[in-house]
């Protein structure tokens, strides 16, 4: 647990609620360490000034001595604690030692950046333009990692299904609409604030739902952005899509995997929790390629010399098996399970009933799923207050 690798970007804050302890973005910025290493360094930094403190402010020094005992107990694994990494830029990372299986101890939450966070990260040329409706219109709503109580909340309803810094979403979905239904209107570039153009269409994807597709291209800075949003209200039920992949037609099926969907490939014991990969519009083949690329990117730095041979071998073997799915030597199964029913796999037949390799199941969301997306209609403000004053 304590040996997990951690990347703390320069915008990330680390909190240990049990100790009321916080490592701000400025401290240990841009570090690659382990949980133990980060806590040990924090303890050393506090310890370094203790001699001076004992002369100038003995009371504080004594309190810090007591605190250091607790912090070191956490660093050595004697006391259990919660390690919260909050990065508005989404550039930080905590290693999953059980990968590619899910990590039972890790909870990953995505949340929408506040205008203040966007401004702090330099994503807005002029922070006075940070009004939410304008951001929505410019299609720059982003999702980032966090682990704060109830942060996603009721925003589930207007969350994007998928978002990309390219025009691939609009290209993939434009054949579900006719060109005359595409509206064009002026907007503001989310990156450089220049005037730019946004294309938008609303379309009903057969056997899925009504969706809103928006794409912006900025001639001034070259920024591209496309976004897919659900039309209508949140689905009453969750949806599980199972595809029995046997031939090239299956690999070419259109896939919308939303941010709220988990992906399973039982033949590989592969399970990606919801939130992994974000929301993407692709094909079955594209999804496998993206999983492979993402595992390589995330674990790329652990392929270095420091990684022991057996673990390196395990990863290379897994990647080979993943890429083999695309050669269709054996049939395999893709399961996309979406608590908000915002995912879709296209049938290969005109009538979905005739598509024997595609199964759709609707089911009642569990209490935990509702909780994850803030749909339990619970008042969490007292819990949040308790968390904040910890
Ligand atoms: Zn621009």
From TrEMBL:
Domain of life per record: Eukaryota
One family name in Pfam for this protein: Zn_ribbon_ZPR1
GO MF annotation, one: zinc ion binding
UniProt keyword terms in alphabetical order: Metal-binding, Zinc, Zinc-finger
Membrane spanning stretches: none
The keyword DNA repair belongs to this UniProt entry's keyword annotation: no
Domain Zinc finger ZPR1-type: 2-96, 187-347
Record carries keyword Transferase: no
Disordered, as annotated region: 125-145
GO cellular component: nucleus
Similarity comment: Belongs to the ZPR1 family.
Protein name, entry field: Zinc finger ZPR1-type domain-containing protein
Organism: Opuntia streptacantha
């Amino acid at each position: 647990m304590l040996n997990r690798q951690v990347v703390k970007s320069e915008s990330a804050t680390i909190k240990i609620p049990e100790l009321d302890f916080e490592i701000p973005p400025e401290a240990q910025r841009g570090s690659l360490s382990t949980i133990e290493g980060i806590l040990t360094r924090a303890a050393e930094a506090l310890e370094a000034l203790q001699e001076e403190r004992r002369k100038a402010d003995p009371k504080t020094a004594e309190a810090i001595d007591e605190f250091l005992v607790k912090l070191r107990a956490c660093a050595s694994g004697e006391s259990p604690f919660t390690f919260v990494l909050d990065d508005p830029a989404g550039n930080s990372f905590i290693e999953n030692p059980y990968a590619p299986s899910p990590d039972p101890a890790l909870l990953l939450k995505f949340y929408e950046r506040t205008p203040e966070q966007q401004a702090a990260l330099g994503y807005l040329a002029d922070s006075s333009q940070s009004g939410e409706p304008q951001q929505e219109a410019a299609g720059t709503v982003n999702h980032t990692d966090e682990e704060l109580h109830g942060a996603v909340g009721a925003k589930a309803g207007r969350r994007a299904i998928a978002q990309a810094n390219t025009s691939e979403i609009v290209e993939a979905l434009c054949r579900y609409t006719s060109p005359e239904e595409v509206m064009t209107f002026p907007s503001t570039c989310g990156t450089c604030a220049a005037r730019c153009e946004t294309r938008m269409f609303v379309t009903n994807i057969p056997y899925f739902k009504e969706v809103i597709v928006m794409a912006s291209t900025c001639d001034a800075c070259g920024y591209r952005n496309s976004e897919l949003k659900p039309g209508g209200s949140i689905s009453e039920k969750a949806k599980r899509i199972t595809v029995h992949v046997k031939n090239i037609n299956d690999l070419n099926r259109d896939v919308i995997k939303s941010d709220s969907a988990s992906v399973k490939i039982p033949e590989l014991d592969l399970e990606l929790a919801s939130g992994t990969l974000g929301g993407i519009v692709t094909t079955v083949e594209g999804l496998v390629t993206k999983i492979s690329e993402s595992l390589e990117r995330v674990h790329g730095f652990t392929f270095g010399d420091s990684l022991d041979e057996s673990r390196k071998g395990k990863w290379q073997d897994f990647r080979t098996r993943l890429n083999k799915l695309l050669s269709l030597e054996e049939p395999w199964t893709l399961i996309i399970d979406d608590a908000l029913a915002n995912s879709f796999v296209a049938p290969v037949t005109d009538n979905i009933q005739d598509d024997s390799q595609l199964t759709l199941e609707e089911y009642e969301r569990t209490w935990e799923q509702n909780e994850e997306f803030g749909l339990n209609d619970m008042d969490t403000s007292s819990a949040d207050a308790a968390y904040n004053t910890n």
